[in-house]
Design a protein that fits this description.
Blueprint lengths: L1 E9 L8 E8 L4 E6 L9 H6 L13 E4 L3 E6 L1 H12 L5 E5 L3 H10 L15 E2 H7 L8 H4 L11 H15 L1
Parallel strand pairs: 1-6, 3-5, 6-7
Antiparallel strand pairs: 1-2, 2-3, 4-5
């Protein structure tokens, strides 16, 4: 089973939040990164603008930008297009086990890309796993700075979904 580590950026910690970006990295290093063009801009506050929107990788790119290098896909597009490319990316793996960090919002937004939980690709295991629970089980404060734990703080790109997915992957590797 392929482990895929992922993270999202979204418009706030509330029920009607919308997805801004998503990043995934497989245990073999294949990546997927998407910035969505149809998030609810009315939900963007000053903090989100300064810490998330201003740090998106494709701010200067037109909508519907795509870079497909086989093992790595980067896209800026609407949710429907992101869904199609994400399905293609996930299809390269026979079975997928999803890992994230404090994943309550991330998992809901992942499912929402596909319409709902019953529509996620069949090769994706329907139960996600959370590294913050593993930190707790291993006796490590689950509020620990992930970048410091992973020794990845030098090249920090905080609030970038792909960077955060890479940090989650490294934490997982250190925990196991």
């Amino acid at each position: 089973m392929t482990k895929v580590f992922f993270d999202t950026e979204f418009t706030g910690l509330h029920q009607n939040t919308t997805l801004i970006s998503i990043g995934l990295i497989s245990d073999c290093g294949k990546t997927f990164y998407a910035e969505l063009t149809d998030y609810d801009i009315t939900q963007i506050d000053e903090w989100l603008q300064n810490n998330v929107i201003n740090n998106l990788l494709f701010n200067e790119y037109p909508n519907d930008a795509l870079s497909d290098k086989g093992h790595s896909i980067e896209i800026k597009a609407n949710t429907n297009s992101v869904k199609e490319h994400l399905e293609t990316w996930l299809s390269q793996f026979e079975q997928v086990e999803i890992w994230s960090d404090c994943l309550s919002y991330d998992w809901v937004l992942f499912n929402q890309i596909f319409g709902h939980a019953f529509s996620i690709p069949k090769n994706v295991y329907y139960i996600p796993f959370d590294i913050c629970t593993i930190f707790k089980i291993k006796g490590i404060d689950p509020d620990i700075n992930r970048e410091e734990f992973a020794n990845m703080q030098e090249d920090s790109q905080k609030h970038n979904a792909l960077w955060d997915a890479k940090v989650i992957k490294r934490c997982y590797e250190l925990l196991f």
